[in-house]
Queue: 4 jobs
Job 1
Amino acid sequence: MLKPLDSPEKTIRLIAEVSGAGQQDVRRRLIAEAEEIGTNVYEMMKAQSIPLYVPSEKLDNFYREADGFLYETTVWNTCQAKQHMRDFISSRLQALGRQQAQIFCFGDGLGFDSAYLASLGHHVRYFEPSLRCQQYAETVFRDNDVSVTTLSSLDDIQPGSLDVVVCLDVLEHVPDPQSLIRLFRSWLRPDGLLFVHAPFWFIHWTRPTHLKQNKWLSGSMKRMYSDCGFRAVDASLFWDPILLTPKENNSVSLKSLLSAFRIHAGRLLLSLGRGYSGIHMAIARRIARPPQAWVNLLKQSATAEVPQQSG
């Protein structure tokens, strides 16, 4: 794992530093998050009376200022499912001969995707609206000894300047996700690549910031991507993630029947989530679990902190 995830103790200290909370409280909340990802964000939204699953000014402010995402995204980045996404991206970049690429990680939270891609030799730019996540990410970049450029404004990106855009677990939070896809298209070079993961179907108490209004986009190739100027090149089975390129780019193709199967099977499976998504959520919640060894270290440390009663 990337630092500080290689040590629960270092992770606790960093969250405490960024959030201003005590380490014992951070540990307690991190353990709760490890038991069920999304717990901290949900409890904070309920406490602040922020409506769930709908856009609002309160929600915008929550994204910028709340510390709940520090716990959610920390735990998510320890999960095997998240490592799979990074492996997919790096293997496709290698297969397509993309070395030292100009990559933009949009909404990269704690910066782990940016740090990972920078460690492979790519030129990475990072953008994230959460102030606390930005602070956390700067430490991630420093401790992993990677060079990542943090952008303060999207105006810093010139049209047609990027080789790759990575957007994982962001679009389901956005009121108009197609507008972002069109923006990504404008930033990419004609032979550029776009990696996306967007579980629009995942409307559950553990994901209270996912917008119900986007659920109809689950599995939609035409409305989400084709109408915005992209075509699919490859995908994991549940589009976690899916790889796209501008329609006019005929030079990028992995030419694999298995890739075509995953793209079309994923479209079918995800489109079913527009209606009943209970099975999807059960699978997603199961795979979004941190390694048990990591959780055990958290709990052992918590037990050690409890003062022993004498006599």
Job 2
Amino acid sequence: MQTQHQNLANGKWATFTLAEQLGNIGSEVGRAINWQEKGNKEQTQKALERGLELFDLSLDDKRWKYSKLKEIARAREVVCDYFYNGNDYNTTVKFLNSYFLQFGILARS
């Protein structure tokens, strides 16, 4: 898979706080949700790929200790389950938007 966020992958992502990282991931997840609701599978997939790339950059960030890595990995798992695995966790759009919104608000404060 081609890197979508080359600038971030080259080190800029590691300058973001955890809240900024998860807020940005949430933006991509939100875009995927919006495209899915509009029935545009191609744009949904592109937004998901960008979001998953950001998740992976966060998981590779050496600053985050086990507890934070566990939270990031679990959030990634829930997003993948929602979009790819039949939503076994019964996650709702409202939950996903609410979860990621909190990080966006924290990053802006």
Job 3
Amino acid sequence: MAHDFTSDDLARVAELARIDLTADEQPLFARQLSEFLAYARQVQEVETRGIVPTSHPTGASTPLRADVVHECLARDAALAAAPDADTSTGLFKVPRVLG
């Protein structure tokens, strides 16, 4: 491990993450956090100068369909598939969530 966390370090990280660690969990979390940070340091050491950033690994663009306006589903057809629809007002009825 490249970094050994003190109990104060671990308590601060746990507080920031809003987790309560038991005394039994602290050594495990300290080891896992040390391993994670060691890996992050290893990734930072990779030489990336001269490498062009990519937004897509294959270089292929995703074909998009044309943005064409189509006729929408008729209100009566949409309401016919809904349970307890109020066809007189053209509204869907849903169970009450609040109040």
Job 4
Amino acid sequence: MNKMKLIIAVLSILTINFSNGQTISILKDKIEKILIDKNATVGVSIAGISPDDTISINGDKQLPMQSVYKYHLALTVLREVDKGIWGLNDTIEITKEHLDNSLWSVIRKKIPDGGILKLSEVIKYTVANSDNVGCDLLFDMIGGPIIAQNYMHETGISEVAIRDKEAMLQSDWKLQYRNWTTANAANKTLKLFYENKENQLSAKSHKFLWEIMKKSWFGKISMKTYLPENVIIAHKTGHSGKNDEGITGAQNDIGIIFLPNGGYFYLSILISDSTEESKVNKKIIADIAKLSYDYFKDKNE
């Protein structure tokens, strides 16, 4: 009788594992069907709590980040805060010279003639609103984009290159391709600093950053489009716009999607060299997010 119970238990475990493997394979198949007729290079990385719940489609392909790198920049700035070099309440002077450009900026709208902002405010505008003026100011404060790149490499995130400020990226289309990461590396970076197992961030900085990421701006079509209204997502987008040939260099979204039962999963989608309309690129992101959410929600119920 005991042997029979043992056999049944083993078979049950094998059946569950087989079923989960089938399900994640089906999810991957569904995502690949979305991508098959799209004229774009798309990197997708999905990772749940279980090592079995992992999908990589072009996950190691180097693709331009655009404003996604503002997440990496914020991590680098907060490292300096945790060292005591700066404080989140430190004030920063924003001059007319900082604002005298065509870069996208909420800061410019807030203080068109210049003014004083706290460091915490500059980080919030840079990450949550993708403010390019704030971004370049923060890059100058840490000593340039290469400092953010080097910090990522120090933490073990080798598949990332951060070389140029926003002012340079906006002036030369080709430069975005040397500011790249991979979908798998983006997920790894999210996981490393969210789970914070090696205390990369202080408790205060960790709370500060992830509250910002949860308030980060969403476009008209995004990861959240087809998800329940109350779903929380901590994420960062990046978008190049189109060039004269109608090519989108980057339409990206990386983030953590939280489940009703308190679980979560990581999702990074990098779309590059797309001749599709912007609404199609955005729908790719929304569709993949919905399929992934449904899979993890059903699995964790």
